[in-house]
Design goal:
By secondary structure, the chain is mainly alpha-helical. 59% of the residues lie in helices and 5% in strands.
Length: 162
């Protein structure tokens, strides 16, 4: 059980986190689940409450960062309502190959000091697109994981890259 000032498990008390308020939740768990939690808690010398909080935190969808542009926050937030199939499409998407080639050319010119102001604008725009795509992909993977899907390993992702 969690209370407003501390997390308790048996006679152990854990101080409340500085930036986190704590709410009380009472759960009725089957004995076998409680035993699994207790075994895991003992193995890592932590309380059952800490293990429960950790398991819950891992299984919930990720929060959207508040320091992102408003439009991107809205887009990532709306992804919570997408089907698993749509999330997999986003997670496995890639930037348009022509844009990648253009970005590489512009970056080379920038590093050589020969990039025009128009080229600089394109470089910034393409970088922002790539960053937004990376955030969408990461958010899609995090949502899929929270829904119980197994994510590909780095080796599997590299094998898919053309």
């Amino acid at each position: 059980m969690l209370d407003d000032s501390a997390m308790e498990s048996g006679s152990q008390k854990l101080p409340k986190g500085d930036a986190m308020s704590v709410r009380t939740v009472t759960l009725k768990l089957p004995e076998h689940l409680y035993e699994q939690l207790e075994t895991q808690a003992q193995a890592v010398t932590r309380s059952v409450d800490e293990i429960v909080v950790q398991v819950l935190a891992r299984s919930l969808p990720p929060l959207v960062e508040k320091d992102l542009p408003q439009a991107l926050q809205a887009e990532l937030g709306a992804m919570d309502n997408l089907s698993d199939e749509a999330l997999w499409q986003i997670a496995e998407s890639a930037m348009n190959r022509d844009k990648v080639v253009l970005y590489d050319v512009l970056l080379e010119r920038h590093q050589a000091g020969t990039l025009t102001s128009e080229g600089q604008e394109w470089l910034i725009r393409l970088r922002e697109e790539a960053e937004a795509l990376m955030l969408r992909k990461a958010h899609a993977y995090a949502l899929l994981q929270s829904r119980g899907h197994r994510l590909p390993t780095l080796e599997e992702l590299h094998a898919r890259t053309p």
